[in-house]
From TrEMBL:
Gene3D superfamilies: DNA Methylase, subunit A, domain 2, Vaccinia Virus protein VP39. One of its GO terms (molecular function) is methyltransferase activity. SUPFAM superfamilies: S-adenosyl-L-methionine-dependent methyltransferases. The active site is at 81. Signal peptide: none annotated. This is DNA (cytosine-5-)-methyltransferase. It is an enzyme of class 2 (transferase). PROSITE patterns: C5_MTASE_1, C5_MTASE_2, SAM_MT_C5. It catalyses: a 2'-deoxycytidine in DNA + S-adenosyl-L-methionine = a 5-methyl-2'-deoxycytidine in DNA + S-adenosyl-L-homocysteine + H(+). Belongs to the class I-like SAM-binding methyltransferase superfamily. C5-methyltransferase family. It comes from Pontibacter populi. Keywords: Methyltransferase, Restriction system, S-adenosyl-L-methionine, Transferase.
Length: 579
């Protein structure tokens, strides 16, 4: 080829992560298209452009608009993935818009690929893994509503325009040097070869059984980069302002601390928030166990578009300063999230903290797009770019820098909505849980606000369950006393100290919604936490309860801790509902 400066048009460009990887490999980014103003502002800031927001659906009903787009060597697209995600409404969200946006991008690809004297050399599309389930294996021109265009250009409308099957691969960003593990479906085609070329990994999972890919012995590659390596070698958000140079974890680049934006501020979260996240990670009713806080010995989990510190998906770090309760744990700063994604320290994001998190979390990892760009260069005989092309200076003009170099004061935590549902169990054991709830979890009763004690025999839909009547605990007392040597002491512990912390049903609900305790009473999440600690002290030898004459559980043998849990939770229910 006579030149090496291939051109790129980026659809759904967002913060520009897809384009950034291609720019690092010497490509010329000539157009970014997105309907969201902060995305275009961020793209313009980093690529020194002046684009205006534009909705890609404009191309859905106008072939003329598609033809007016500049021809480019590369087409990139990352249609919004929210509706395809399994985490959105448990995977049951409406997929219509996601499919329409995807097919709109593919319309553009089809025209630019098949037009006379096309210069298109490759196209790539990024989305969540789940999106593959909702798209066909291929599209004809007719499928893309391009029949008239095809006939005009001497093409049979029923001919295949775009093939997806065999041209898609699940790509993990950690394979390409990213500090996070992020699995995304990449679909595309290098036109010269008529297929998608999976980039050769640069790093490997230590436990990987694969010995080679694209002729490369993977066992000779360095191991995945870990979160611990990053956090141990990057400044704490609580450091003081100085002229110190900060080295970029992923690039041959250093910036002064004063030019490192969006990092030196307090991201500590309320105690009620991190406790909720801890429970959902370690003790979720039907999902697997996760690390709390994050494991330092492997890549970070996927960076998300929010900083909700109470969720199961939240990234939670131990705060570097000495604090207990509120602020004891924190979420990543925007800059930390950007580094985990693979953005250089000089890359800037325009908007409020919430907007910046959305821009970062929805981006394509530059490490992945850079790997794709390398494959295109290799396919077309272009020389290898040894040193990535990145901005060497931070342009902070017009940027809302989040840095404060201050420690924040914690006020009242955000309230839950009135009538919020509560469900929590002390632990999972014997594939069972004993849950306290303020509604009928089994769905058999409509009444809300009455507290219930329910046993679940399993962790998924379809497993048996049973809700116990109030005061059932009185029937358990003689059994506990006679079956276990510490039974008398356990009952005394519950009745002397713990029971006094149980509020009436209305106050229990009010404390739950306000996320803090009142007087001597504990709000229900803390009540269950304390119960878990009490039972742990009495259940040190993994003893079992074997039912004899009286049937309490559906299973003949259950962990002793579950019997103790049922006793205490039914006592909570009985006291709360009758006060």
């Amino acid at each position: 080829m006579s030149h090496s400066k291939l051109t790129v048009v980026d659809f759904f460009c967002g913060a520009g992560g897809f384009s950034e990887g291609f720019r690092q490999q010497g490509f010329d980014i000539i157009l970014g298209i997105d309907s969201w103003q902060p995305a275009i502002d961020t793209f313009n800031h980093n690529f020194r452009k002046g684009f205006q927001p534009k909705n890609i659906l404009d191309f859905d009903h106008s072939i003329e608009e598609i033809e007016q787009l500049p021809d480019s060597d590369i087409l990139l697209g990352s249609p919004p993935c929210v509706s395809f995600s399994t985490s959105n409404k448990s995977g049951k969200a409406d997929k219509t818009l996601g499919i329409k946006l995807t097919e709109c991008f593919l319309r553009v690809v089809a025209i630019k690929k098949h037009k006379p004297e096309s210069i298109l050399k490759a196209w790539f599309m990024e989305n969540v893994k789940n999106s593959k389930r909702y798209l066909p294996t291929s599209y004809s021109f007719e499928d893309l509503r391009l029949s008239e265009w095809a006939e005009k250009n001497g093409i049979d409308p029923k001919m295949t325009a775009i093939t997806l099957e065999g041209n898609s691969s699940i790509i993990n960003s950690a394979d390409y040097g990213s500090l996070q593990s992020r699995n995304r479906l990449i679909t595309g085609e290098v036109i010269r070869y008529g297929k998608f070329l999976v980039p050769t990994p640069t790093h490997r999972c230590p436990s990987s059984k694969t010995v080679n890919r694209n002729g490369i012995e993977l066992q000779s590659l360095p191991n995945f980069r870990t979160l611990g390596d990053f956090l141990n070698n990057f400044p704490s958000p609580f450091e003081k302002e100085s002229q110190e140079l900060i080295k970029d974890p992923s690039y041959d680049l250093s910036v002064e601390k004063t030019a490192l934006s969006d990092h030196f501020y307090d991201t500590g979260i309320h105690s009620c928030e991190w406790r909720s996240s801890k429970y959902l990670k370690l003790n979720h009713p039907f999902m697997g166990r996760m690390s709390f806080p994050e494991s330092p010995n492997k890549p970070s989990r996927t960076v998300t578009a929010t900083s909700i510190g109470s969720s199961r998906e939240a990234l939670i770090f131990k705060t570097e300063i000495k604090r207990e309760g509120d602020g004891e744990y924190r979420v990543p700063t925007v800059r930390e999230s950007a580094v985990l994604m693979g953005f250089p320290l000089t890359y800037q994001f325009v908007g409020s903290e919430g907007i910046k998190r959305k821009l970062v979390g929805n981006a394509v990892c530059p490490s992945v797009s850079s790997a794709l760009a390398k494959e295109v260069r290799r396919a077309y005989g272009l020389s290898n770019i040894e040193k990535p092309h990145i901005a060497t200076v931070s342009n902070l003009k017009g940027i809302n820098n989040l840095n404060t170099f201050d420690v924040k004061e914690f006020g009242t935590p955000p309230k839950r909505k009135a009538g919020s549902r509560f469900r929590r169990h002390p632990f999972k054991k014997g594939n069972m849980t004993v849950a306290l709830s303020n509604y009928d979890i089994t769905g058999k009763a409509e009444e809300f606000g009455t507290w219930r004690s329910t046993v679940f025999y399993g962790t998924g839909e379809g497993f048996g369950s049973f809700t116990y009547d109030e005061n059932f605990y009185t029937q358990l007392e003689p059994i506990i006393r006679s079956e276990f040597s510490d039974g008398e002491k356990f009952i005394a512990t519950i009745n002397n100290g713990f029971s006094e912390k149980i509020a009436s049903k209305d106050l229990l609900q009010e404390m739950y919604e306000k996320k803090f305790s009142t007087g001597c009473y504990l709000e229900p999440t803390l009540l269950i936490e304390e119960l878990a600690r009490i039972i742990e002290d009495f259940d040190t030898h993994d003893e079992l309860f074997v039912q004899s004459t009286q049937k309490i559980f559906e299973k003949p043998i259950v962990p002793k801790g579950q019997l103790y849990s049922l006793y205490a939770i039914n006592k909570i229910v009985s006291i709360a509902n009758n006060n």
